[in-house]
Design a protein that fits this description.
Layout lengths: L11 H11 L4 H12 L9 H13 L5 E4 L5 E7 L8 E6 L8 H4 L16 E3 L2 E3 L7 H17 L7 E6 L22 H8 L6 E5 L8 E2 L1 E10 L3 E2 L11 H23 L8 E8 L7 E2 L2 E10 L5 H18 L5 E9 L2 E2 L5 H14 L15 H6 L4 E4 L14 H6 E3 H19 L7
Helix pairs in contact: 1-5, 1-12, 2-5, 5-12, 7-8, 9-12
């Protein structure tokens, strides 16, 4: 006896619609979209020009593209393909701001001694690959979202529920940039996604396109901390004559102890799909121009990723206990700290309709049982979507392979996209959207 069909399996008609839409996809169009996006710089806080271009692309495809300004420089783009009102709606979402800026004045020397070609907002096409700032993450993923929606519109599929596209500003984990006259502090951390939903771009389900060729239904949150290590302002010529308490040297003790604690924290919270990590991200103390003096203060910033099963209040207490243990072991330290940012980790039930539809799409494309990626520590705007009440699945592209124009490292993974991977992602998004937006709404 054959197994009964899965409740999320496509009907023969839906499969024909998927095939019709996928026949509208092309590597040429995806390359055009990626190149167009890369060539318009969009560092966090300055996404307006790219949002305007994307809205034009959506509008030209019949998706009622719109620009949604947050201020005079920052904006989202969104579009809608209307259904007949008898089904449930789906939001396909991707952020559009880049992790780094692409300007040596802001990125160097912290990114390295100079900007490589892939760190600059100028696209280069190398066969199946496009290289340039953000070409994969987020712009290749955003291109796949746009291409999938365009293909569904071009195929003329009769949707029951609306298909929405959201391309959001401020998706990167950053506070405001103190550069180029930017003054708003809340330009990152999902501000565009939050504003998009707040202003009525809403759906029954959401899929976010971010890296990783597997469906994810949960991810880490993040808590940021500022740790202040205090010492005494003094002079090198008086070190042997007066009390000597160097805040920078004491900060090194705190940093070393925290770096030893982070793996223990991660091990204690690794479960489900997540393995939350921590890092010391920056150190500030003293005057570089005045190497003769010690500083009375050194500041350390910490990013501590959090499990969906931990609240920010619990994480704050756990971090405080770690600092207290460090001070108990090193009583010469004078340390205080505060939590400066909190975005909870989130979870969508694996049996939610959007997750099962996304898993079914993955299995249809791969021809095998879905294999989730575990031990994740990356946070995305999926946390904003879920915290606002939208059941959300995440799906993205795999890493670049050995035939890429440059070897894989962290920046290359962000800045080089394999168009073949983007095409596979677009097919997945088409499959998921057809599955959800062409079915009759389930009575509540």
């Amino acid at each position: 006896m054959s197994a009964p069909p899965r409740p999320d399996a496509l009907s023969e008609q839906q499969r024909r619609w998927v095939d019709d839409a996928c026949s509208q996809l092309s590597a040429t169009r995806l390359t055009e979209l990626v190149v167009g996006m890369v060539d318009i710089p969009s560092p966090t806080g300055e996404e307006g020009p790219l949002a305007a271009w994307l809205a034009e692309q959506l509008d030209a495809a019949g998706l009622a593209g719109r620009v949604q300004p947050l201020d005079d420089r920052q904006a989202n783009a969104h579009g809608r393909l209307a259904g007949d009102g008898t089904g449930e709606s789906l939001l396909l979402y991707a952020p559009i701001d880049t992790f780094t800026v692409g300007d040596p004045a802001e990125d160097v020397p912290w990114i390295g001694p100079e900007l490589r070609a892939d760190m600059q907002p100028r696209a280069q096409v190398h066969g199946d690959h496009v290289l340039g700032l953000g070409a994969s993450n987020p712009k290749g993923h955003g291109a796949a979202v746009v291409a999938a929606a365009e293909a569904i519109a071009a195929a003329g599929i009769p949707l029951r529920g609306d298909l929405l596209v959201g391309l959001g500003a401020g998706g990167m984990p950053t506070n405001g940039r103190d550069a180029r006259g930017l003054t708003r502090r809340n330009t990152g951390q999902g501000v565009g996604c939050s504003y998009l939903l707040e202003q009525g771009v809403w759906a029954d389900h959401a899929v976010i396109a971010k890296p990783g060729w597997a469906v994810a239904w949960e991810e880490v949150g993040l808590c940021w901390f500022e740790v202040r290590v205090r010492g005494a302002f003094s002079y090198v010529g008086s070190r042997h004559r007066m009390p000597y308490r160097n805040a920078v040297a004491h900060a090194a003790t705190v940093i070393t102890a925290l770096e030893e604690w982070f793996p223990r924290y991660a091990a204690a919270h690794t479960d489900g799909l997540v393995a939350p990590q921590g890092i010391v991200a920056s150190v500030e103390g003293g005057w570089p121009r005045l190497a003769s003096a010690t500083s009375a203060l050194a500041r350390i910033t910490v990013d501590l990723r959090t499990s969906p099963r931990s609240t920010p209040a619990e994480v704050r207490r756990e971090f405080g206990a770690a600092i207290a243990a460090i001070v108990a072991e090193h009583p010469e330290l004078d340390v205080d700290w505060e939590m400066t940012l909190a975005i909870p980790g989130t979870h969508t039930p694996p049996d939610a309709a959007v997750v099962t539809a996304a898993v079914a799409a993955w299995e249809d494309l791969e021809g095998r049982e879905h294999a989730p990626i575990v031990a994740n520590s990356g946070a995305t705007d999926a946390n904003i979507l879920r915290n606002r009440g939208l059941p959300t699945a995440r799906i993205g592209m795999d890493r670049i392979g050995p035939d890429a124009p440059i070897p894989l490292d962290f920046p290359a993974g962000m800045n080089v996209v394999d168009i073949r991977e983007a095409l596979r992602l677009a097919r997945h998004l088409v499959h998921t959207a057809v599955s959800l937006c062409t079915r009759e709404r389930t009575p509540s």
